[in-house]
Amino acid sequence: MPTYWNRRRMRSRKGRTKGSIGALLVILIALSGTVLAQEILLPPPPPPARDYGKVVLHAQAAHSPGDVVFDHWLHRSHFTCRVCHVDIGFAMQAGETGITAESNRQGFHCGTCHNGQRLFNGKPIFAACNDGPTNSTCDRCHSVGKPGARKYNYESYTSRYPRLTYGINWQLAEERGIIKPVDTLEGMAQAPKKLAPREDFSIKANLDWVHPVYFSHEKHTVWNGCELCHPDIFPTVKRSAAHYTMFSNLEGRHCGACHNQVAFPLNNCSMCHPRAPEWASK
Fold first, then answer.
1. What pLDDT is recorded for position 191?
2. SS (H, E, C) 234-277
3. Phi, psi dihedrals of residue 259, rounded to the nearest 5°
4. 68: domain range?
5. Which of 29, 124, 142, 187 is deepest in the core (most CB within 10 A)?
6. Coil, helix or strand for 170?
7. Position 218 in a domain
């Protein structure tokens, strides 16, 4: 029969054993949390919908009327993505286009449309960066720090557009005819030749618990054509030969070149994974 001191030593060993097991459990939980953090990769929360896709062009010249704000939501209400990023030639990366007041005056970049001559809905589009003195027209673009300078307000302008959990459902707005985005500018390029429709397909996820991605060529070509995605963003290789991950998407590559930048953010999981939950807040 154990003596008093033996019983104390036994209890002490049991306490140390329980403590070691507890510490081991904490370590395992921490490690499992790391693994889960790597597998359950959620994008950062997007900004307010009115600021999603906002591009700020910082003034380069000392005499500039200020920084420029470009709202994607306003322009995509009227034009497809390929008009600006293919025909006109705006780069997909911030700061890579090289826009200047002089290039606008020469009819390039913003000046392709904003030249005081091109008509939209029967009215001339105001000229960008004209040679006259700075005025209220300049402030419509050079609007940073100038409350009330912008002509259009996001909430009122898009009030009739259908919504997603986060932001505007542009696809549905186009399908319902609420918006009719122009795909070709007169005198700029020929209307793109319609190619044979490519089939839609599913992309199997690397993890069994992640629902497959449904990709629609038809929906994407309405806005982008083929040349906006191929071959710069997606290589034209045999299906499944290239591998895309949420990590690469969040780095701004592959799907992330547009989604999380201008197209609906990756937080809207069910738009790509049809049976997935929604993580984005309204």
1. 67
2. CCCCCCCCCCCCHHHHHCCCHHHHCECCCECCCCCHHHCCCCCC
3. -80, 135
4. 52-157
5. 142
6. helix
7. yes
